Amino acid sequence: MYKYLLITATLLATAMLPSYVTAATMSKADYSAAKTRVGADYKAGQALCGDLKDNAKDICILEAKGKQKVALAELEFGYSGKIADGNKLRVVTAEAAYAVAKEKCDDLAGNDKDVCRKQAKADEVKALAAAKLGKEVAAARTDAAEDVRDANYRLAVEKCDALAGDAKDRCVSAAKATKATQAAQAASAVAAMRPVTVPVTPAPKKEKKGGC
Description:
- The structure is a single chain.
- By secondary structure, the protein is mainly α.
- The chain has two domains: 2-137, no CATH class; 143-190.
- The chain is 76% helix and 2% strand.
- A two-stranded antiparallel sheet has the order 1-2.
């Protein structure tokens, strides 16, 4: 049971991480190439499932699908750099991990199976809650930053009122330019953020029915 949940727990831990690491967004060409690789990796993963049987095969298929969904969500975020796509990556990771964990519980029976399923669901709920919190915090920080820029801009323009003629015009232009620069820097910082890379699930191995 614990071996079955090890990979899932790792994925969920990653999905719940609140911090971001900086990384450059990819080019359109790299994005297209990476998307093609994701498709190829998915087909390869599905092919590995062909030699398995029963629930082991079902688990393998779900793991392949989950890896594909997570890889595509991670790719989308790496390309767009949008906070919304970063949050979507966390949600997709949590959901994919839950689907696999729940399926693995089918190899158990009785109370062990019930506990396994409830544990898998609890882990998913925690990961989704963390993703939601991260989204709300990011939105709050963005709003706060905009409020600060607006306040600084209004203050700068107010100071320009003490001037006249060309001097005032230059002062106002400088205030506008400063606000635009700060907004561009904030957008660039957001575009460079992405979550820690999700661990790759190892290729499935043949296991006897009921093995733990």
